[in-house]
Amino acid sequence: MTAPVFRLALVTILVAAPGAATAEVPEPEGYRLENYRAPVPAALHGAKVIGTDEAEAIWRGHSASFVDVLPRPPRPRDLPAGTLWRDKPRANIPGSIWLPDTGYGELASSMAGYFAKGLDKASHGDRTRMLVLYCLADCWMSWNAAKRALALGYSNVAWYPEGTDGWQAALLPLQDSTPEPRPDQ
C-alpha cells in the first residue's frame, strides 16, 4: 500500500494599498460624472498631488486648510415624529472643514455656492492660501473638488488622493467631524 501524496501549492496574493494605481488612469478634460469610487489619475493639471507624508508635514506646519468632500446622506425630511435618526459619524483629519457632496461631477447652483462659500471660509478669503482637498482613497470626488477649486481661482491647490484611508493607515490622528450646514438646512 502506498502512502497518499499531499501537494502544497503556494499562492501569491498581491494586495494593492488604497490609492495604489493598478493601471495608469488618464486625466479627463472635465469632471468625473459617475463611478466615483474607482482608480484615480496620478495628476491633476494645475494642482499639486501629495502623499500622506507630505500631507502630514503640511498639516503639522499649519500651512494649509484641509477640506474633506466625502458625501453625507441627509436626514430624510419626511421622517415621522419621534423617529430616531442616527447620523453616520465621520472621522476626519483634525482641523478640516467638511463640505459634503461637493465632489460630484455636476453640482446644483445651491451646492456650487455652498462649495465656494466653504472654500472662502477655509481659506480665510485668501485665494493664495494652500487648500488640501481629500476624501477617501480611489475617490474621484476629491479630484473633482480640487479641479473645481482651481476653476474658482484658488492658486495653491493640493490634492491628497489617499484621503482619510491613507491618513488612517499611517496611524495619524483622526477626529469626529461635523459638516458645514448645507444650503437647505
Automatic annotation (TrEMBL):
UniProtKB keywords: Signal
Range of residues in the leader sequence: 1-23
PROSITE patterns xrefs: RHODANESE_3 (PS50206)
Domain Rhodanese per the UniProt entry, residue ranges: 93-176
InterPro entries membership: PQQ_CXXCW (IPR022376), Rhodanese-like_dom (IPR001763), Rhodanese-like_dom_sf (IPR036873)
Protein name, per record: PQQ-dependent catabolism-associated CXXCW motif protein
Source organism of the structure: Bradyrhizobium erythrophlei
